[in-house]
Write a structure and sequence with these properties.
By secondary structure, the chain is an alpha/beta fold. It folds into 2 domains: 8-212, Aldolase class I (TIM Barrel, Alpha-Beta Barrel), CATH 3.20.20.70; 214-244. The protein is 39% helix and 15% strand. It contains 10 helices and 8 strands. It has helices spanning 8-11, 32-44, 55-61, 86-94, 115-124, 136-144, 169-178, 192-200, 210-213, 215-235; strands at residues 17-21, 49-53, 68-72, 99-103, 128-132, 149-151, 183-186, 205-208. An 8-stranded parallel β-barrel has the order 1-2-3-4-5-6-7-8, surrounded by 7 helices. The longest helix has 21 residues, at 215-235. The termini are far apart. Belongs to the NanE family. It holds the Pfam family NanE. It catalyses: an N-acyl-D-glucosamine 6-phosphate = an N-acyl-D-mannosamine 6-phosphate.
Amino acid sequence: MIAHTGDSRLASLKGGLVVSCQAYPGEPMRSPAIMAAVAQSVVAGGAKGVRAQGIEDLQAIRPLVDVCLIGLVKRGADGVFITPTVADALDCVTAGADIVAVDGTRRDRPDGQPLAATVAAVHAAGALVMADCGSLDDALYSVAAGADCVGSTLAGYTGERPVTRGPDLDLLTELVAQLTVPVIAEGRIRNPDDALACLEAGSYAVVVGSAITHPTRITQTFAEQLTHGRTALSDEGRHPDRDE
């Protein structure tokens, strides 16, 4: 059963694509202005929502798009690093996030506060909470804490489940069957077929990041495939530069 969808911000995402517009530290695209342009581009292409990281990025994106904005802050890269504190979550709301994405695992949080404290603070500030989870137990914990929706974002990254080649469809199916809040698919969704499979598994919406907004990784995929193909052609005795 699906609940918590009366809010128009969350309802606007139903059955649609959310694009994660993020760049990694040290990359040329790591700029609020660039991420804002990327956000505008994906909205022009049909994205129903944008997911973005960092207060400056959120501030740059918010005036330029009229779709639901999911905001987060990353602190480090280990343990609880996705919007890890109550203060981080409130900063995201102030920067314009409609929904704040937070770590929804059962691990200890850096500020010593339970997840429920973050959820309560975000709700009091007028925004919603998306709990990024790695397992069914995480998701049940997040729902009990008051999360408005749950994401499969951390599946395979917390040690509770294996890293699947594509999206963790088994977990998605489990979450949809047992939760009373919308389940948003995220993680290792590399092409439209993967995205459609997530919707068919019952996900409320689908978040895609690197496959759309990370040129380095996209280029690497093409380059590796071409290298592999040229090697295979050479091994077969065919000239790799001719269409035979």
